[in-house]
Design a protein that fits this description.
Layout (H helix, E strand, L loop, with lengths): L5 H6 L1 H24 L14 E4 L2 E5 L2 E2 L9 E6 L4 E11 L4 E8 L4 E5 L2 E4 L5 E4 L5 E7 L7 E6 L5 E11 L4 E10 L4 E6 L2 E5 L1 E7 L4
Parallel strand pairs: 2-11
Antiparallel strand pairs: 1-2, 3-9, 4-5, 5-6, 5-9, 6-7, 7-8, 10-16, 11-12, 12-13, 12-16, 13-14, 14-15
C-alpha cells in the first residue's frame, strides 16, 4: 500500500474539488440566512409617543421636564396687568397625596398656580413639571368638553379621568382687559378651568393643546 504525504493529499485534484464544494455550500447557506432575516424596518411618520383613544379621539402624552428652561417651555396663555403683560407656561402639579395631577400655569416670575375646587392654589411647595415645547403643538377650538385628535394629556383627576391642557379668553370687567387664561380641561364637567384674581374661572368654550400631526 502506497502512503501519501500530507502535502500530496492537499495537492490532489479530488481533495481540491471537495474543499471547493464545501466553500460554495457554506456561502449559499450564509446568503439565504441573511436574506431571510432582514433588519428592523423603519416606519415613516410613526408616532413615538404613548397614545390612547378617548371618546373617539386619539390622545397622546407630552414630555415633562423637572428643570426649567425658558427656551424649551410651552407658552399657554397671557395675563395683562396695569404695568405690563406676562406670559404663562404649562406645568402640571401633584396634589392630594399624589393621587391627582393637575395641569396649571407658572408665571414669568416663577410663581406656580392651579385651579382646584373653586379657588386658586399655589404649587411652589409641591412637585411640578414643565411641559417641553414641540414644533407640532397647536391650539384647537373646542367646546362643552370636546377634545380633538392629538390632544395632549396634562394630568389625571381624582376619579382617574384624563385632564387636558386648555386656555380660554376671560374678560376682566374691573380692568377692562381680556386674558387668555391657561388651565386644565375636565371633559366630564365640560369646561376649561383656570384662575384669575385668586378665584377659579371656567368656560365651556376654549382651545385645547394638541399635536398637529394627528389632525
Amino acid at each position: 500500500m502506497v502512503l501519501l504525504s500530507r502535502s500530496q493529499i492537499f495537492a490532489s485534484p479530488t481533495w481540491t474539488s471537495y474543499i471547493f464544494t464545501v466553500i460554495i455550500i457554506s456561502l449559499t447557506i450564509t446568503t439565504r440566512s441573511s436574506s431571510a432575516s432582514p433588519g428592523p424596518t423603519m416606519i415613516k411618520n410613526a408616532h413615538a409617543h404613548v397614545t390612547r383613544i378617548v371618546n373617539g379621539s386619539v390622545t397622546r402624552e407630552g414630555v415633562w421636564l423637572t428643570i426649567r428652561h425658558l427656551s424649551s417651555q410651552t407658552v399657554g396663555g397671557q395675563e395683562n396687568y396695569r404695568i405690563r403683560s406676562y406670559l404663562t407656561y404649562v406645568v402640571r402639579t401633584y396634589v392630594t397625596s399624589m393621587v391627582e395631577i393637575i395641569p396649571g400655569k407658572i408665571m414669568e416670575w416663577d410663581e406656580c398656580r392651579y385651579a382646584y375646587d373653586g379657588r386658586e392654589y399655589g404649587c411652589n411647595e409641591l412637585r411640578y413639571d414643565y411641559l417641553k415645547n414641540e414644533p407640532v403643538f397647536t391650539w384647537v377650538e373646542r367646546e362643552n368638553g370636546d377634545i380633538c385628535n392629538g390632544a395632549i394629556v396634562g394630568g389625571y383627576g381624582l376619579g382617574g379621568g384624563d385632564l387636558y391642557i386648555c386656555n380660554f379668553e376671560f374678560f376682566d370687567f374691573y380692568g377692562m382687559t381680556v386674558h387668555p387664561l391657561l388651565g386644565h380641561l375636565n371633559t366630564r364637567l365640560g369646561k376649561c378651568f383656570s384662575t384669575w384674581n385668586t378665584v377659579e374661572r371656567g368656560s365651556s368654550k376654549y382651545k385645547v393643546l394638541a399635536d398637529s400631526t394627528y389632525l
